[in-house]
Amino acid sequence: MKQKSVKLYASESVLEHFYEAIANGNSKILKRVHIPKSDVFYVRKAISEATGETYTLDHVERAMYLEGYLTRNEVLDPDRPRGYCSYDTPKEVSTT
Known about the structure:
The protein is an all-alpha fold and 96 residues long. It has four helices and no strands. 10% of the residues are buried.
């Protein structure tokens, strides 16, 4: 029997969604929440304190993956380009 894949989603309120799902006993939401490694939260906080710029969790997680600090199994959609930098943009399809 083929299993259905679960579509995960990224959220800035990931911890709130996680605890709300636990409190409400909502296993559907719980299965869909992507919780980045704690390193992503710490790095984002350090960047914010050092620069005053607060990046999204997805942006920090993606940067850490591209720099080799996270493996593809630790990130959400590792093959999906985000467009955060020049080498992380979708490839143009040639029509000629």
